[in-house]
Write a structure and sequence with these properties.
It is a single chain. By secondary structure, this protein is α/β, with parallel strands linked by helices. The chain has one domain (6-272): 3-Layer(aba) Sandwich (Rossmann fold), CATH 3.40.50. It has ten helices and nine strands. Strands 1, 2, 3, 4, 5, 6, 7, 8 and 9 form a nine-stranded mixed β-sheet that branches. Helix 5 links the parallel strand 3 and strand 4.
């Protein structure tokens, strides 16, 4: 661990494949970042052609992370986070929001893109009282996350952990059984832990979302939009926190409720493990 409380989970970054789009870099493109390649921009642009407000929706996912982090730290006393599918750091990051309230908070970020790895090491600096770490692993292989030394060095899995899966389960096809993948992760967490999910859906605009999904698949990326019932099943056995599973814009909004809660095509929810 470095003096600033940050851990480096690996010594060397894997090679970057600039010929295949990656969700983290596409999101970076939508958020106005520069850490993306031509193939990412091409896919992002094709999807934005179908849904011009996709960049705004990407920003709403980030805002949800901030709101849910504040709620968990302030209202629920959570001091540990496991953020899978973290993406390229965009300030304020989850640990910055949480540690601004409780400096002792510990956060493990997980992603499988070398660009994310490089930026996470440089930018995800923890408070001295807390700790932040980056684990290079794949959600499709839960044991690669749970057995990683960087996780054990940072989080205490005998105490509640908030698992955040922001716009990431969409990358696992139904035939890969994302529910089983999620169960393997959640079974490792103790009672009192929390699960936060956002997930794209065709429920609000079937035609446009269908076109965007087709564009992603044509570029070689798995992208699944799921219905409200399908997303709700990911929370099976857990107790949904008010207001339950809602459009992402409607989940405990800051200030006035949104004029059109369905303007961002994502479901969002937070649940507690009994």
């Amino acid at each position: 661990m470095t003096e600033n409380g940050q851990q480096h989970a690996q010594a060397e970054a894997p090679a970057v494949d600039a010929t295949v789009p990656h969700s983290a870099r596409v999101y970076d493109y939508w958020l106005g970042g520069k850490d993306n390649f031509a193939v990412d921009r091409a896919m992002g642009a094709a999807m934005t052609e179908a849904i011009p407000t996709l960049p705004a929706m990407a920003k709403e996912n980030r805002r949800f992370v901030h709101r849910v982090a504040r709620h968990l730290v302030v209202e629920q006393g959570v001091r540990q986070f496991l953020d899978i599918g973290a993406g390229i750091p965009t300030r304020p990051n989850l640990h910055e929001v949480a540690q601004s309230i409780a400096p002792e908070t510990r956060v493990v970020y997980v992603d499988n893109d070398p660009v994310v790895l490089a930026h996470s090491r440089a930018l995800m600096v923890s408070t001295p009282e807390g700790r932040s770490a980056y684990v290079d692993a794949d959600l499709r292989r839960p044991r690669s996350i749970l057995d990683h030394p960087g996780l054990a060095e940072t989080l205490d899995l005998t105490r509640p952990v908030a698992l955040t899966l922001i716009a990431i389960l969409m990358l696992i096809a139904d035939e890969e059984d994302p529910a089983a993948t999620l169960r393997e992760l959640t079974e490792a967490l103790p009672s009192g832990s929390y699960l936060a999910i956002t997930h794209p859906t065709q429920d609000f605009n079937p035609e446009a979302v269908g076109t965007a999904v087709a564009a992603a698949r044509q570029a070689g990326m798995t992208l699944v939009a799921r219905t409200r019932d399908e997303v709700q099943r990911f929370f099976a056995g857990w107790e949904l926190v008010e207001p339950g599973l809602t459009p992402v814009l409607a989940w405990r909004p800051d200030g006035e409720p949104p004029a059109d809660p369905q303007a961002a095509y994502y479901w969002a929810g937070l649940a507690r493990k009994p």
